[in-house]
Write a structure and sequence with these properties.
about 260 residues; alpha/beta; Rossmann fold; 2 domains; binds S-adenosylmethionine
Length: about 260
């Protein structure tokens, strides 16, 4: 069952804006107060809505994404801001040499919201991202830990029962795939879900990659109820009960979203 926000670009854009203003900006400001002139890059920007509150605070923003159609929407939805030079959107792989030489060491804030769990080889990707930071810069990561009830992103399934069934994404690949096939899920969706499974990331693995990359965790918040569930399911966002956040492995099953600020 596809949710409305998957079908309606403007709805998704508005949700990105609201989520960013209500949760991401206040979270980042625990570590770095936003000031006009700051340089912000969002990797996996989608329609660009997350950047709107940063643009409104006078930051210069760059949004990059691998999906050309989403960059087109971003350029349309933020046409006046793009024309005014407040934001730029690029469909580009940040591993390209020219991109690296143009932007190395130049961002005060880098944002990855619901993106790191889609990226292969995070052990290489995270230290590479850090090369784009200014000396006091921070990277914001927000993502659903792999073992949470819907960490497989199964909500994208077109078959309703497959989209609301929790935890079955944790089964071995062949069993997970068999259930999706037996449930009549579309092959394209099955392929997408298997790809997400291959790039899965847990809280412990994320923290250990951050440390191995020579970065420090400056601030973190774990959520029992992900802030974006407000739009998806009408639920009130809720932080995780603190003692659970200290229990490795177990916490992953009950934590639907984590936010991290990391820096050098
Ligand atoms: C789930 S969407 C999140 C979009 C947006 N950040 C939001 O929160 O609504 C993930 C986005 O990341 C993009 N993406 C995945 N891997 C990427 C990469 N290596 N570089 C840039 N974008 C990437 C995808 O194309 C997709 O638009």
């Amino acid at each position: 069952m596809a949710l409305k926000h998957h079908l309606d670009v403007k709805v998704r854009f508005d949700q990105q804006v609201d989520n960013s203003a209500s949760y991401i900006v206040p979270f980042i400001e625990h570590t770095a107060a936003l000031r006009p002139g700051m340089r912000v890059m969002e990797v996996g920007t989608g329609e660009g809505g997350v950047l709107v509150p940063f643009i409104n605070k006078g930051c210069w923003c760059l949004g990059v994404d691998l999906a050309p159609e989403r960059i087109e929407y971003a350029n349309e939805l933020l046409e006046p801001e793009v024309a005014a030079g407040k934001v730029k959107f690029q469909c580009i792989n940040i591993f390209e040499k020219d991109f690296y030489s143009q932007y190395k060491g130049s961002f005060d804030i880098i944002i990855l919201k619901d993106v790191i769990e889609h990226v292969p080889d995070q052990e290489k990707f995270i230290p590479y991202l850090a090369e784009f930071l200014s000396p006091a810069g921070i990277i914001f990561f927000g993502f659903p830990p792999w073992r949470m009830p819907f960490g497989g992103h199964q909500q994208v399934c077109r078959k309703k029962w497959l989209s609301v069934l929790p935890y079955y994404h944790i089964l071995p690949d062949f069993l997970y795939k068999s259930i999706l096939r037996a449930g009549g899920e579309h092959p394209v969706i099955i392929e997408e879900l298997m790809e997400i499974k291959s790039t899965r990331i847990s809280i412990g693995r994320f923290e250990s990659i951050v440390r191995q990359s020579g970065l420090n965790i400056k601030y973190k918040e774990h959520f029992l109820i992900n802030p974006i569930y407000k739009y998806k399911f009408g639920l009130k966002p809720k932080l995780q009960w603190k003692p659970i956040t200290f229990i490795p492995w177990f916490r992953d099953f009950l934590t639907t979203c984590v936010y991290y600020s990391v820096g050098k």
